[in-house]
Amino acid sequence: MLANALSYDLSPTSAWEACLRFIEGKVGPATFETWLRATELALGDDGQARIQVPNKFFADFVEENFAELIREALIENEVVFTSLVFEPVEREWSAVVGPLAEEIAESIERERKAPQPAVGGKQMRFHPNYTFDTFVVGDGNRMAHAAALAVAEAPGQTKFNPLVLYGGTGLGKTHILQAIGHFAQTEHTAEKTVYMTSEEFTNQYIDFVINKKDSFSFYKKFNDVDVLLIDDIQFFSGKEGTQDQFFRIFDRLLRSNKQIVLSSDRQPDKIPDMMERIINRLKGGLNADIQPPNLETRMAILRKKAEFDGLNLPEEVIQYIAGHITSNVRELEGTLIKLIASSSFSDTGITLDIAKELCGDALSRKDERLSVRSIMQATAQAYGIGINQLSAHSRKKEVTLPRSVAMYLCKKLTKQSLRSIGLEFGGRDYSTVIHASKKIDAEMGEGGNAELQAKIAEIESLLVST
Ligand code: ADP
Ligand code: MG
Known about the structure:
Elements: H1 12-24, H2 29-36, E1 40-43, E2 48-53, H3 56-76, E3 83-88, H4 101-113, E4 119-120, E5 123-124, H5 142-153, E6 163-167, H6 173-186, E7 193-197, H7 198-211, H8 215-223, E8 227-231, H9 240-255, E9 259-264, H10 276-283, E10 286-290, H11 295-308, H12 315-324, H13 329-343, H14 352-358, H15 362-366, H16 372-383, H17 387-391, H18 397-413, H19 418-424, H20 430-444, H21 450-465
Parallel strand pairs: 2-3, 6-9, 6-10, 7-8, 8-9
Antiparallel strand pairs: 1-2, 4-5
Helix pairs in contact: 1-3, 4-13, 5-6, 7-8, 11-12, 11-13, 12-21, 16-18, 16-21, 18-20, 19-20
Bound molecules: adenosine-5'-diphosphate (ADP) and magnesium ion.
């Protein structure tokens, strides 16, 4: 009978303990402590083995990475079950996890690095999370996103052919390429969509054309392609043979109005050792750049990811992270993952304190070297005004607020006397500095001005990175 699913009269708890010992021997200690130690097993009447975890993010991660191992452990320990599910359960989870966040983030990063769609017959499998729905549009990527959506809706029928997306690492190029493939497939706007990285293209070219001398199979692969997506074409640099084949395929597809979308980490004509004729053809379509997200977009991305993972992410934490992690989206995600990992089993959930600890108060370590001048510089940059305006005598609001903020930060972060700070700001009196600092201070406490708090976090992160 399934209700008595266990042989040996074991309770689920002791059976699970035996399973955990088995699992412990097969994964690294940090992985075990973080992801598995605190999990629990419940057995349903229907024979379902339900592995209980603190939240949906955990459930997904454990399922993706350890389902097979857990299955093995259950069988090994003679637990009879019909199916295995991973279930988020709200309860007091005992805090067993140390800050192994770094390791976890790395393991997740490894998983995520490989959104390699399996080539199954004609259809490719695209990364399920990289869709247009999960992509946050902001000033930095608006054009790239719009063009990508347009070609996904009508491949080969827009002026954007080829479409080249270029920009720094971690800004969403692969995400958009995959989203196009996903869309074309689910909305049936194209029959055959192929995604590959330029390295895969190169390897296949070498494998078929050079080693097996079977160029026919290589070309055949692209014969009936409607949408060709090639990621990171900067790696074609210097590879003449590959470029030559790429050009032929690319040229033929373009002539028959098939859609080509490419990504590159820099503007195509800045890729060294790239054939002139390729560059020229790339100029014939649309080259759209992707810029790093601004503060608002970073906050929107965090909100979206939290929603997606079913997380309760306090607004102050969103502001803090978005203010401190400024370089790219991948890093933003990495920080969020670390945060989830280190707070999943704690009673308090995700708090500002944990976020601060994770972002490592990098600033406090640099305090010694901060000068009034560098603070003025960063503040001016964050507000998009000239540094001279801070010491000028304008009383326009666009200038007075940044000026007060800069004074506040100078008082807080440097060892300069109030008098010398005042002098740097166009010879103002020290009482002006006190007054400005007090005003900003009042808005920085709990329940204070969120926009201002985020802005100041942004300035601080600028200071850390300079
Ligand atoms: P790139 O290929 O440019 O190096 P990726 O496409 O791999 O960058 O993006 C890095 C990570 O950031 C991915 O997990 C991706 O989903 C996420 N990401 C990037 N931009 C956005 C965005 N605008 N909205 C949501 N997620 C994003
Ligand atoms: Mg990429």
